[in-house]
Write a structure and sequence with these properties.
By secondary structure, the chain is of the alpha/beta class. The protein has 11 helices and 8 strands. It has one domain: Arginase, Chain A (3-Layer(aba) Sandwich), CATH 3.40.800. The N terminus is likely disordered.
Length: 309
């Protein structure tokens, strides 16, 4: 819903499809299946999230998927066993379509967020997304589809922006994006993480492995220094921020020690740097596991909806 005098506000991309299809996708495992519903409900109940903040996405198309993924890989996703192996969860034939619909719906959300951010030079949050482990010919790490790579390919073909930066602060290295864009001088991959999946020598990349004992102050000091240097040297036209919450001290997979306040400071550091540079910003949820994970993305969205800086 585009209202001219409301364009100063951050936007949020959300569809009930995100919730219903995730909830139908088999037994709950490390990922809190109610995570995005908790965030949406709380923001709505406290009237922080209003109708004019919301953008409603369509699902992505098969042609969108083929911008990055091979036909053979997309065909393999029709095999229940292949999908179960990637997601590490038993879904069964009856729920199979819901899983694929979820990933296509969230990828459609990333495409809508990118379109709006590029047009209005505003920050846009997607509920979900940041599937940074997916490769053109395979999925891994709970990631079936690489929504960020698809968005970059689509919008630079439309000549909406040429140079893109991916700022990935998920606990796990964004190996799918790193490998996909390894020979692409128009995409800079910045990943600060506690778990390295692949090592590659690439000039337009910054990989920072952080100790699991790293606390708020040390983490934020490293991030500010390294991010400033990367932004200054590359000068992107648009930014994707994968704001993974699995660096939170209460995450049940990650082993880092960032506090809830430290996580918000981390997210706002990136948000303010990009806004100060007057660049389009697409924010994606990334990873985050356990019953407390939802609070981190909620804090970030709530702050940005309440404050226009």
């Amino acid at each position: 819903m585009n209202i001219p005098f409301r364009r100063d506000y951050a936007k949020v991309v959300y569809s009930s499809t995100y919730i219903y299809n995730v909830l139908s996708a088999g037994d709950q495992h490390v990922f809190d299946l109610m995570k995005y519903k908790k965030i949406f409900d709380k923001l709505t109940q406290e009237k922080t999230l209003r109708r004019y903040h919301l953008l409603r996405p369509d699902t992505c198309t098969y042609d969108d998927l083929r911008l990055v993924h091979s036909d053979s890989y997309l065909k393999s996703l029709q095999d229940t066993q292949v999908v179960e192996n990637i997601l590490k969860v038993k879904i069964g034939e009856l729920l199979f379509d819901s899983v694929l619909e979820y990933y296509c719906a969230v990828t459609g959300g990333t495409l809508l967020a990118t379109a709006y951010a590029l047009r209005w030079i505003k920050p846009v949050f997607n509920f979900g997304g940041g599937f940074h482990h997916a490769h053109p010919d395979k999925g891994e790490g709970f990631c079936l589809i690489n929504d960020v790579a698809i968005a970059i390919e689509k919008f630079r073909r439309l000549s909406r922006a040429r140079k893109y930066m991916i700022i990935d602060l998920d606990y796990h290295q964004g190996n799918g994006n790193l490998l996909y864009f390894k020979d692409d001088s128009d995409v800079y991959t910045f990943s600060m993480h506690g778990d390295t999946w692949v090592e590659i020598d690439r000039p337009y990349n910054k990989d920072i492995l952080v100790s699991k004992n790293c606390g708020d102050e040390e983490y934020l000091t490293i991030l500010e220094k390294e991010l400033d240097e990367s932004c200054h040297s590359f000068k992107p036209d648009a930014v994707f921020f994968i704001a993974g919450s699995d660096t939170y001290e209460k995450d049940i997979i990650g082993d880092m020690r960032l506090s809830r306040a430290g996580m918000l400071s981390r997210n706002l550091m990136v948000y303010r740097k990009v806004k100060k540079a007057n660049l389009p910003l697409v924010i994606l949820a990334g990873g985050g596991y356990g019953p407390d994970s939802w609070e981190i993305y909620y804090d970030f969205i709530a702050y940005c909806l309440r404050n226009k800086h």
